[in-house]
Design brief:
Layout lengths: L1 H23 L10 H4 L17 E4 L2 H5 L5 E7 L4 H11 L7 E7 L4 H7 L6 E5 L5 E6 L7 H7 L1
Parallel strand pairs: 1-3, 2-3
Antiparallel strand pairs: 2-4, 4-5
């Protein structure tokens, strides 16, 4: 009988603890920051004083990467022999690239230093980078939707 009373008491204590924890949990907007307030902006781009540059797709160079007016810099690791890369290349060339976005085509076979720097092991990889070259995110487009929207949504 004592064991039953002890088990029931233990269950009640656990249940009461859970209820108390739920009641004391801060609610969004009441003392606790919201998810939006806690998140860090994914991209830091030109200030309000700088004009936003027209979207473009050009060959990679450090000078192009440092060009002002772009909030989003995407490196596209492209190989001419890769059918996936050629499909992405065609999709990018026939699409409107949003203002403030530049996609920089990197020669997958020649730019081994950049591949190593960003950990790229497969052609048709896209890397979002800051203007100083710091990686933000990576997406491998192999076998995925071939569109500028897909690229930007997945980075």
């Amino acid at each position: 009988m004592k064991k039953i009373i002890l088990v029931v008491a233990l269950v009640l204590v656990i249940f009461a603890s859970l209820v108390l924890a739920l009641l004391l949990q801060p609610k969004e907007g009441v003392g606790a920051p919201s998810v939006d307030e806690m998140s860090v902006p994914a991209e830091q781009g030109p200030s309000e004083a700088q004009p936003v540059a027209e979207g473009r797709y050009v060959a990679y160079s450090e000078a192009e990467l440092a060009e002002s007016g772009y909030r989003t810099n995407v490196l596209f690791f492209y190989a001419a022999w890769c059918p996936e890369c050629r499909a992405f290349d065609e999709a990018i060339n026939t699409s409107d690239i949003p203002d403030g976005v530049q996609i920089l085509q990197v020669d997958y076979d020649q730019a081994t230093d950049l591949r190593q720097r960003y950990g790229v092991t497969l052609q048709s990889t896209f890397v979002s980078v800051a203007a100083d070259g710091t990686a933000r995110s990576t997406w491998v487009g192999y076998g995925k939707d071939k569109s500028v929207d897909a690229i930007l949504e997945n980075l």
